[in-house]
Amino acid sequence: MEDLKAALRKKAAGLLARLSPPEREALLVKNWMSHDARWFMAVAKEYGLPVANRLNRIAAHELGKAEAQRLARALDLRPPATVDDYLLVQETFISLLGPDLLDYRVTRVGDNTFRVDVQRCFAHDNAVRAGITEGFECGIFARITGWLDALGLAYETSPPLGPCLKAQGRECGYTITLKGRS
Prior knowledge:
The protein is α+β, with helices and mostly antiparallel strands. It is built from six helices and four strands, in the order ααααββααββ.
């Protein structure tokens, strides 16, 4: 029996070549976000929103650690020594992983402190569409704390991570103070 894999792979590569690199990246991000939303809702329906929130926070944090390590190796990044160093790394990660998923501002508020203010957030938008804003907790900043941990940075967030601020009718803004190397 003839193995068809090589010929099929070649034809598949021809089909995928129809996509530009930015189109391919956008499609991968959309598919990943679609998986993420469906996983979250499946857990919420089966075990309840508190369990889905807890598991999402854990998974997002651990994913953040793994992807930060991979990206730092792939880009040959040195460990960030200053807030400016870290902010460049953070923006690099966001630029690769889904720059269109959030509308946000980043400002420095001190030598070791910065603030992220989110105007539009895909996670909140999806929670609104799913009708689960009451009790919904943010997983996005848990992912960022995974990046910080993987990069060896001690930090403090204010407010502490927890319920989605937008779902509570508040502005979404977190101040992060870097406390040096962990």
